[in-house]
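Recall that a protein's primary structure is simply its ordered list of amino acids. Everything else, from secondary elements to tertiary packing, is in principle encoded there. The following example makes that idea concrete.
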Amino acid sequence: MENIRDWMRPDAGPRERTILPRPKAEAKAKEPTETVEPARAAEPRRSAKKTVEAVQPALSDVQLKLVEGASLLLGREKIALGGRSYNSDCSGTVRAIYEYAGIDLTSRFSRHTGNGVTRIFKMLEEEGLLYDTQYPVPGDMVFWDNTYDRDGDGRWDDELTHVGMVTESYVDGTIRYTHFHYGRNSVVVENMNLLTPNVFKKSVNGRSVVVNAPIRIRERDVTYPINQGLTSHLYRIFGKGYLMEQG
């Protein structure tokens, strides 16, 4: 997705996921919910806070390099890494991170048509590297559909409109991913949780925490509830780009 600004979020709702890029039925919005912890009586202060365990399999050197590259791009408006410049968009961000780890995602772009997101998706599909899970691992690419109305027809029929990369994954379902945020016009880290797809925010230790970040881009003259269009609703699939054959 290139040169789109100003985020917002309608809800595509839970749906069957497929690896094959084929047309989907128009999604029906499901009202997300916000969970709030009930009030409790004051308890004695504890010396340590409960932490959530990360899903941390043994990472390859390439995966570690990918996570490092993602951290170097945080907050950047202009995408440049390793002495090279890239388009300031979602596919440019993922390309930069992967090339920092020695993987050229454009090596087979000429075999496919479509935008950068679609071409990357098709490359992974060719090698059988797309997979659906609630517990991805660092370095995995993550694809979304319908993050904006690409063809302007007012329907939720726009496949493969956004891509990012997973940097952290936890047993409670929390997924931290790096991507180019068009509203902020920079690279950011946000949350997604496929175990609780209809939760926007929840209260943790008295503070509000985003569980599933909004990802739908606002359209002019169209108003949607602020809690719709969450990452969990528009999620398509993950891909192990670090296992791609080079050359």
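The radius of gyration is 18 Å. The helical segments are 61-73, 90-100, 116-126, 231-234.
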